[in-house]
Design brief:
The chain is mainly α and 952 residues long. 76% of the residues lie in helices and 0% in strands. Among the domains are: 217-313, Alpha Horseshoe (Serine Threonine Protein Phosphatase 5, Tetratricopeptide repeat), CATH 1.25.40.10; 339-476.
Amino acid sequence: MNRFKIATVVLAAFCVALAGGCSARKSDQYRREGDTLFHLGKLDEAQGAYLRAAEVNPENVRAKVGLGRCYAAENRLDEALDQFRAAVALDSTVEAAYVEGVRLLIGREDFDEALAMSRKYAAVDAERGGILHAYVLRESGDIDAAIERLGALREAFPSSVAVRTDLAAAYRAANRLNEAESELKSILAELDTESVEARIALVDVYKAQGRGDEIVREFERLVAERPKDLGMKLGLAVSLLAVGRPEKAEELARAVYAQQPEAAWANHVLGSCLLARRQFADAVPYLEKAAKAMPHQADVLRKLAIARSGGKTPRERAPGRRTILESAEDFPERTAARPDWRTLWKQGALGAMLGNRGRFLAEDDPSAVEALLVAALLTDQGVVVEELLRELPADSPLEGYYRVLEGRQAKPFIEYMNEWVETEEERKVLRENARAFGLASMGGRAHAVDILSGCLKEAPEYGVTLYSLAQVFRAARMPLAAARCLDMLISQAVDNMEAHTAAYRVLREARLFNEAQMAAEKTYSMFPASQEAILNLSQAYLDNDLFDLAATVLERGLKNQPDAPALQIALARVLLHADKPDKALELLGQAAPTGELADLAAATTAFAAAGLGNWGVVIGHIERIKEDTMAPPMLLLLAAAYTHEGRTEDARAVMTTGAERRPLRGEMGAAIIAALEGGQESVGAAGLVENLAENRATLAQYMHALACVEAGLHAQALAAFQGIYDDVGDDPGVIAMMLGSLAHAVPKATRGEQARELAEQHAAVPEAWLGLANVLNTLDDVDGQREALAKAVETGPMLPRAWHANALFLEQHDDLNEAVAAYRRLVELVPDDVVANNNLAYCLLMAGGDLEEARRRAEIAVQKYPTNPNFLHTLGVVQLREGDLEESRRNLQAAVGLRPGDPTMLLDFGQSLIALGQEEEGKGHVRLGLRYADQFGLPFARRAEAEETLER
């Protein structure tokens, strides 16, 4: 009984401690959820999450700040202030509580408490608190005291750009313009010569001095000196806006916006220009982004208030009470109402739009039905298209549109679209997106891009157009252009999770893993509680062999969502990649997945069990998965498990399954089948077959290693290969795969040394040197790569892939004459290799080589693949150089049609037209190339040549 009582007491104490820890974690989970909801504008839901966080843990300071923000957005100012005061009382270091509290107090003109709160923060953080205190002094009308305070801070923190910028702002507010100018110029001279903020602040000072034209000329000079400096272009745009030249300002800002949609000043200029044209609703998203980035810019906040109110000027404060941090009453946050279809259409959130179609159809709005139908077409939802066709009004132009679209004939489609005319902007956007979709589906991608580009220029606030452009570029295999359009869409509608996900996926599908990682990081920074954002970022880190970061992201996610099977399985996969199968199995045992996740869990469990040699477990879990859904790695692993368990016939049946589902084709697959059949069948790798046939354990381990290679589990693959190295280590294929896995599985510090040691052990094997070159590429060792590739062709003079790798390396490093020699050797070995022939032709062009040879090589590639835009482009440029102008025009036109919007191809096509005497049409295509490069941020190495072409 005593032991029972003691155990009960201990257990109770343990539970209390555990409950305390769990409460804190649970409270923070609710708080994070509230942050996400608040960011999305869902104020009621955010408030509920913050209240739950505070209920679970009354000392959660961040929850109090979040709740205060919600109350402030609803104009419940007393309650908001109570929350900010409570937060400061709990933790005197939380800057957000001071700033938000001061903001509200200034808005209410309660300067006494605002000063007290700012002084309290200054006692904690002398620099930032001091800036806040000076700011309150300035807003209270005591500008001299503010200047004195900032002057003292300048002496204490002489390298603080923030202090000195605020001091200049105080001088400006006091109309001490010369001192403001001097302070800003000293920032540029002493602290940050590149400070765009200081230069833009000078615009306001110069304007007040009546020297607006002078600052414009100064920025024009700087832009001329540094034409690629986007910050200087923005400064020029702001200065032009200040002196009443909005057209040129908008043009410059839009060019910067195309490359940096998040640029605060670009959004400010664009919003200001729309506001000047009384396009209030259109100005709001631009000004909102500017205000979020620059919350202390009075002009931005004033314009945002005007735009939100539909043109109503916010109330002025009493003289001497000019404030930058405007009150919540002046600038209310938009409430989190359910978005209507027009909002989603403008945001390009077509999935959400279609997902809510029941609600929109119930509104009995014909325009909604039409927009939904076009959205279904753009997202390739055929069943939904059929459903919406039945809802179309009888007089809708989309009835006839769909009929000609189904006919797939360009001429009747174009004729119908010419008859469909719209005058209202919303209707024009609908028509142009429908027209572009139809033309793109019939092979007219270049026309589609031209139409959508024009639509975007005329109505830039419609995100659906950016979505359509991304779809066209994606279909044309232009992932960077597609991602760029999606990035522009995200900048217009930051909460559009569909666009975030699409941008990540299009980059990952193109194996642009670094770019995909950046996209995933951006999404995660905005939606840290989103399971999709967590999974995408962890996968991005995994793709780049950043196992620790991938694990960290998932572990954080699991703290907030402890029973999320998708996150548990993903973390188990990361542990597998890090060669920790035991920990992966332990985690998988805690998961309770269903549906597709159950299959994924079974597959992950199978690989983890294989890593521990539990082959019966492997078989049991793989056999749970539907056979027709098994990917090649799973089939290979199943065959390996059967072989380990002595079930050779079952293994052979898996390996010889139907051709379309065969787990491994080519020489390696044939070698495994031959070994399973006793080594009787003659195959290329006879030595490997013999070794595998003699030892079934080696054969099973070899199959396991290949399964891991196919699954990207490089650490396990390398371990499996090392286990059978003595039996099959002389096989070139095994050596190549070992080095391929080593490039991912071994840390960079020792990767090169281990790879070189393995290559030197097999110095006569060209595959060893190719593998070493691949490893050195991951280490950016250019000289080492060059040496390894030279040894590959030296030891394998008859091996095409050695010459291909060598030639490609030389081409990429602009050693064109050597690349020409390597490609010539390659086409001697493989005369029909279309890539080698095309690349040889291109290198001959770039090196000023034999044009006749270049044409012959380019023709070989085009004859075999007549719809490859790169091959057509190469041939067209060769013909242009030769003077075969009509053929050049024909091939370059075809290339432009297949790869729409490519500035380089448009330049060459334009030059071919100019050479034919069609100067205006040719220059029109060159202008298109420049326009697309600016509008979509596309790379254009030959921009100067294009501009020179237009000047002739």
